């Protein structure tokens, strides 16, 4: 069983399969000047499957596939199919921007993908273009329609940004009236590749107050174990609303997750430094036992929370990294 020095059970892996993305969301990366990883720098599917199988044997029960945008990597469905067959893996989920995803929804359902997080910061096509710098709104909405058609659990993730999409908060909340979706609003984080200065005006409290002004009957739900969101529901609505305090980090105390970047760096905290490179170990010929020992040592030293991790990473370019290279 994987546990850190604070006694927390670590059973959730966020696995980024690529740093590349077909959108250029300004809060994630600069518009130009991105140095994508070469193919040899990325973990191969075989390497990802190997390290995932070891982690599942050690107690990881849930894997979320992230990017960049996962579906820009060739043959992703073949990898997901093999990953879904790992004995002991209880839940396979996916985060996507939805641009390329719609045709794959039936296959995702078939292999047992439990839920899909769909990044969607606005319901206005013009604001979508301004935020993402790409005209792909129709394709994202087609993915949402396909996910609902096939009965998939859907979480819509919207990053709230001052002067960009705050007027979309209430229209997105309104989606929960007739759709069985969870609309989750995320505080803007500084992981944007140095493209701009993140504003922290729209924090958890400001977002919640905005929703409550329109829906004073908003009811607090009991949050699931290890939840990163505070969850609510409007009476009579099919779906729910969540707020993720990603920058104020009030959920860190119960953290049960680790991350693997596309190049194989293990991060025990989003705000912390890389603590181990599993790709380098595998390519150096380290056997399964050696990998297990290295993982146990690294995860055992996981920081108490995001504030402590950021303090330990002081002076390193952690906060100037893009979410695409970290793994969204």
From TrEMBL:
Domain Radical SAM core residue range list: 5-225
Keywords, comma-separated and alphabetical: 4Fe-4S, GTP-binding, Iron, Iron-sulfur, Lyase, Metal-binding, Molybdenum cofactor biosynthesis, Nucleotide-binding, S-adenosyl-L-methionine
Catalytic activity field: GTP + AH2 + S-adenosyl-L-methionine = (8S)-3',8-cyclo-7,8-dihydroguanosine 5'-triphosphate + 5'-deoxyadenosine + L-methionine + A + H(+)
Pfam family of the protein (one): Mob_synth_C
Cofactor: [4Fe-4S] cluster
Top-level taxonomic group: Bacteria
Molecular-function GO terms, alphabetical: 4 iron, 4 sulfur cluster binding; cyclic pyranopterin monophosphate synthase activity; GTP 3',8'-cyclase activity; GTP binding; metal ion binding
InterPro entries in the cross-refs: Aldolase_TIM (IPR013785), Elp3/MiaA/NifB-like_rSAM (IPR006638), MoaA (IPR013483), MoaA-like (IPR040064), MoaA_NifB_PqqE_Fe-S-bd_CS (IPR000385), MoaA_twitch (IPR010505), MoCo_biosynth_MoaA/MoaC (IPR050105), rSAM (IPR007197)
EC number annotated for this UniProt entry: 4.1.99.22
Membrane spanning residue stretches: none
GO biological processes: Mo-molybdopterin cofactor biosynthetic process
Annotated protein name in UniProt: GTP 3',8-cyclase
Species whose genome carries this gene: Pontibacter chinhatensis
């Amino acid at each position: 069983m994987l546990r850190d020095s604070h006694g927390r059970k670590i059973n959730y892996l966020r696995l980024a399969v690529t740093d590349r993305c077909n959108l250029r969301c300004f809060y994630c990366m600069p518009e130009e000047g991105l140095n994508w990883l070469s193919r040899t720098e990325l973990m191969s599917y075989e390497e990802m499957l190997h390290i995932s199988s070891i982690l599942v044997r050690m107690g990881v029960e849930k894997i979320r596939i992230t990017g960049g945008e996962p579906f820009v990597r060739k043959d992703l469905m073949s990898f997901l199919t093999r990953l879904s067959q790992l004995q002991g893996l209880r839940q396979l989920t996916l985060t996507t921007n939805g641009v390329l995803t719609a045709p794959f929804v039936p296959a995702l359902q078939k292999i047992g993908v439990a839920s899909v997080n769909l990044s969607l910061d606005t319901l206005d096509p013009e604001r979508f273009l301004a935020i993402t710098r790409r005209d792909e709104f129709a394709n994202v909405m087609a993915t949402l329609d396909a996910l609902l058609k096939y009965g998939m659990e859907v979480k819509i993730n919207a990053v709230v940004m001052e002067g960009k999409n705050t007027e979309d908060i209430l229209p997105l909340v309104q989606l929960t009236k007739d759709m069985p979706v969870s609309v989750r609003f995320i505080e803007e984080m500084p992981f944007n590749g140095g493209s701009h200065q993140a504003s922290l005006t729209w924090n958890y409290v400001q977002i919640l107050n905005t929703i409550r002004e329109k829906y004073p009957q908003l009811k607090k739900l009991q949050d699931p174990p290890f939840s990163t969101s505070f969850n609510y529901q409007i009476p009579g609505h099919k779906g729910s609303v969540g707020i993720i305090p990603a920058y104020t980090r009030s959920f860190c105390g119960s953290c049960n997750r680790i991350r693997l970047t596309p190049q194989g760096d293990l991060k025990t905290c989003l705000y912390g430094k890389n603590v181990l490179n599993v790709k380098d170990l595998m390519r150096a010929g380290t056997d399964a036992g050696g990998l297990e020992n290295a993982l146990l040592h690294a995860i055992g030293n996981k920081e108490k929370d995001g504030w402590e991790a950021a303090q330990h990473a002081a002076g390193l370019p952690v906060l100037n990294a893009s979410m695409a290279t970290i793994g969204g």
